[in-house]
UniProtKB/TrEMBL annotation:
<feature type="transmembrane region" description="Helical">
    <location>
        <begin position="6"/>
        <end position="25"/>
    </location>
</feature>
<feature type="transmembrane region" description="Helical">
    <location>
        <begin position="61"/>
        <end position="85"/>
    </location>
</feature>
<feature type="transmembrane region" description="Helical">
    <location>
        <begin position="32"/>
        <end position="55"/>
    </location>
</feature>
<protein>
    <recommendedName>
        <fullName>J domain-containing protein</fullName>
    </recommendedName>
</protein>
<keyword id="KW-0472">Membrane</keyword>
<feature type="domain" description="J">
    <location>
        <begin position="112"/>
        <end position="168"/>
    </location>
</feature>
<dbReference type="InterPro" id="IPR001623">
    <property type="entry name" value="DnaJ_domain"/>
</dbReference>
<dbReference type="InterPro" id="IPR036869">
    <property type="entry name" value="J_dom_sf"/>
</dbReference>
<keyword id="KW-0812">Transmembrane</keyword>
<keyword id="KW-1133">Transmembrane helix</keyword>
Amino acid sequence: MNIIFYSLLIFGFSYLILKLIANVSSKKLSRFVRFFIFLFSATLALLFAFGGRFLLSLPLILLSLGVLKLKGLTLYQIIALYRLIQTLRMSGRFSFRQNYHSSNHSSLSLDEAYKILNLDKNNNITKEDVQNAHKKIQKKIHPDVSPETSRLSTIVNEARDIILKNIS
């Protein structure tokens, strides 16, 4: 019995909405539909944000901006910009989490630097020995030879600088 009641209610409501749509001008209807979609999206966004699901509310907000036809970035441009930023971050060239080492701060100890360049700390080591050991390793791992070894090359350069500072 409830199914019949609900179906009659839904059909009656649908009939009234369709009759209203048929009698209203298309310009007013378009504006009303856009406003309704925006209001519905904003309400859902607030509900999702309140429920702790902020990531689900962000697409609804972006979609509602496209519905309103706001000037500025369209939804497709925002998605393209997001993909571009992700691609650049993944390439490592514009990574926001890169560790930039200043010249005063080093993550390598002196012992590690000697081990990296395969030198004995107890021997008298000259600058030429350090430079030769550095060149020998850099020929194998230089970033021009293999782009994946750029971080290793940086570590070897840092080890050379640490040892040269210690010798001077």
